[in-house]
Amino acid sequence: MSGRAGSAWRRPGRIALVAGVAAIAVAVAGCSADGPADRAASDPRRPAAAPASPGGEASGGKAGKPPAVDPGWPRWGFTHTGVSANNVTDRFERDVSRELAATPMLQNQHIMGFGALNPEPYPQEYFWEDLDSRTTLMKESGGTQVITLCCAPDWMKGGPQGPTEESAWDEHLEDAPYPEHFDDFAELSAAVAERYTDVEYFMVWNEFKGFWKDHSKPADYKGYTELYNKVYDAVKAVRPDAKIGGPYLGFDSNKTGESELRGPWGVVNQNVLDAFDYWFEHKKGADFVVVDGASLTDAHELLPDAFGALSKFGAVTDWLRDKSGGLPVWWSEWYFAPEDGTTWAEPMRLAVQAASMIEFARSGAATALYWNPQEKDGACQGCMWDPRTGASTPTGRLVGDFARWFPAGVRLEPVTSSDPKVRVLAQSRRLVLVNTSDKQVRTTVDGRDFTLRPYEIRWSDRQAGSTG
Description:
- This protein is α/β, with parallel strands linked by helices.
- It has a single domain, classed as TIM Barrel (Alpha-Beta Barrel), CATH 3.20.20.
- The chain is built from ten helices and 17 strands.
- The strands form four sheets. Strands 2-3-4-5-6-10-11-12 form an eight-stranded parallel barrel, surrounded by five helices. Strands 1-17-14-13 form a four-stranded mixed β-sheet.
- The longest helix has 18 residues, at 221-238.
- The chain is globular.
């Protein structure tokens, strides 16, 4: 879609299954705890005193039993990409599954690409092995499964029948099916829904791939909407219980431009809004709205800075909720770090990620899926588990902590910081503080004094009787 969509660290170039996951050297700085243990409460969403879950010590210290994750709509999760835990060894997969099961969350997998080979190499001849492997991993790790109905077999987009050739993964994975094959793709989507009956959520396509090659011009939103409607009808025909969302459209922004959706972080491309409006007006139906995007502009700018740019996520969520009449808003992917070769120290990257998740929670986003950049080997900043042991990394624990303490339905409480450089998110029994400064900060939060290291993330129990 945008220049970001094709960057190697976001989209693994080789999508065929490969063994191994990437090493990651991360600092645990910024993840500590402070505060008294929680008392038991009759409200099932309120935590009672209990030992921390595996991995909790590094990211939150001793934490009480977390509120139950609402089974109707889990808020946080991640997407499996080219390499995941099922591509290493059976033991490694079990170790990662055990870590993930400590905090159940949404887990998403594409039907082709991003770790799955061509599911229909010949018309009506299916290859399910890779999808079976990924869905098994999701089930074993306690995940709520999501399937993204993308991408399309080669023969649906001008290529040959048969298993996808090596060169085609890089050159044609993101091509859209030809209009004469929209029905074939809808039939494949229905076959997926029939096979994986324990999967409730389905997202249709990914970032208008093949429907929007030049972002300076309007997208082929009519073509996408036609495909979406065929998929919607086909899946609902065989699985009326399935929940289907679209348009999985990237909300690109620029420093300047003409658009109703704008802020200090930039201006959303009007072509994006036109595409969304057309899809929403002409769709057959939708159970939720799906978008993605980055806090950065298309020119890799963070306006006014790395933390200020995060307000884009809240502004877009507000706009979508207003336009859709309150449909749940899913962020299928979100990005917040430089993509021009600039690198951040890990404490800063984690702090920006935590602040972005605070933005989603405050704006009422129903779901946010982290694009897990697990790699085959080498350094991998932002990976969710350690390739040597399968243990959760600081990134994995951060996502897990938000899933544990801020699930859908939990009531947020208006707790603020005396120093605006510290961002806070609180519920009745637990809060998280994020120092957005590269200097030590002293602040008063919830009637208590805190001293935070540069870019520190602090999880804390709340004192009995705290009201914010």
